[in-house]
Design goal:
Length: 309
């Protein structure tokens, strides 16, 4: 019976998951908006592999064979460094973080999707958030949201900081009369400033160009992104890890936000390795299908014009 019901579940809407390091985009956006961090301050964070948010509570970076050392925010995002984001999370604090989580609709079961069975997100109650809980949330662990909520939040970053109501229908056509009802986009609220959003998109671009998300690049198009790998939830170790990659393209005038989650992967199969290449392949087909010109197309057209002249 469970298997039958599962067939009809919309995973993107109904199933909770730990977003992992893709959530570092949210932490970065909050930190920038609140003036807790800037993009390229040298030696702003330090990674010694293990970080102690509280005494006798060590939390490791994903890269345990070599420390990332001192980094700026840009470098920390490129490296997807856990200790750096735990330090940033501590600067921001729980109260400010939760204010933005609510603004991004991460606590909501009704974000306007018009799809039934939206699962209730799972966050530690604010009055129970200590240093360890704040640290793990800063890099997307020990919180559970739906993929729809994650992509809606990233879409707000891509959309000049404006959170939009998710919709699944562009228009409805009456086949008897031919009448067309358009579903107009609906803005919910401005979550972060346009300036912060523009900075975040630049950071996402650098993750793909020179960071851990380089496998998500697409020839001829500007792509920004973030990798993610989340551990199995306690008691569900047999379900394996979740590898993910979220991408925006084109960066300058974003038309697509794409989140891919691969469930049940083994330890070591990180989002940048297994999910990013698939996103790259998908965007390679999606972007031209939307008639979005590539850099190579523009160059070809320019060459043709020169020849004609």
């Amino acid at each position: 019976i469970k298997a039958i019901y599962k067939v009809w579940r919309n995973t993107a809407v109904s199933d909770l998951y730990e977003p992992g390091s893709t959530f570092k985009l949210i932490t970065s956006a909050i930190g920038l908006e609140e003036g807790k961090v800037s993009t390229d301050t040298e030696n702003d964070f330090e990674c010694n592999i293990v970080y102690y948010p509280a005494p006798n509570e060590p939390i490791s970076c994903w890269r345990t064979y070599a420390a990332h050392g001192r980094q700026s925010l840009r470098q920390a995002l490129q490296n997807s460094c856990n200790p750096a984001f735990m330090q940033l999370g501590a600067r921001i604090g729980a109260n400010i973080s939760y204010k933005y989580y609510e603004a991004f609709e991460l606590f909501s079961t009704n974000i306007g999707s018009n799809i039934a069975a939206v699962s209730k997100p799972q966050f530690t109650p604010i009055d129970e958030v200590g240093a360890v809980e704040l640290a793990t949330m800063s890099f997307g662990q020990r919180l559970n949201i739906t993929p729809l909520q994650m992509i809606t939040a990233v879409s707000a970053i891509a959309n000049d900081g404006i959170l939009m109501k998710p919709t699944i229908v562009d228009k409805i056509t009456n086949t008897d009369t031919g009448a067309v009802t358009n579903i107009e986009p609906t803005a919910v609220r401005q979550v972060i400033s346009k300036e912060t959003a523009t900075t975040m998109k630049d950071l996402m671009r650098s993750v793909v160009e020179t960071g851990s998300g380089y496998r998500g690049a697409v020839t001829g198009y500007s792509v920004g992104g973030k990798t993610g790998t989340s551990e199995p939830q306690p008691g569900k170790e047999d379900e394996g890890y979740v590898a993910s990659f979220v991408a925006i393209s084109p960066v300058e005038d974003t038309q697509i936000v794409l989140l891919l989650c691969i469930y049940g992967v083994e330890r070591g199969q990180q989002g940048g390795i297994v999910a990013a290449p698939v996103v790259s392949q998908m965007l390679t087909e999606i972007l031209p299908s939307l008639n979005i010109s590539s850099d190579t197309t523009a160059q070809d057209n320019s060459s043709n014009l020169t020849q004609l002249t």
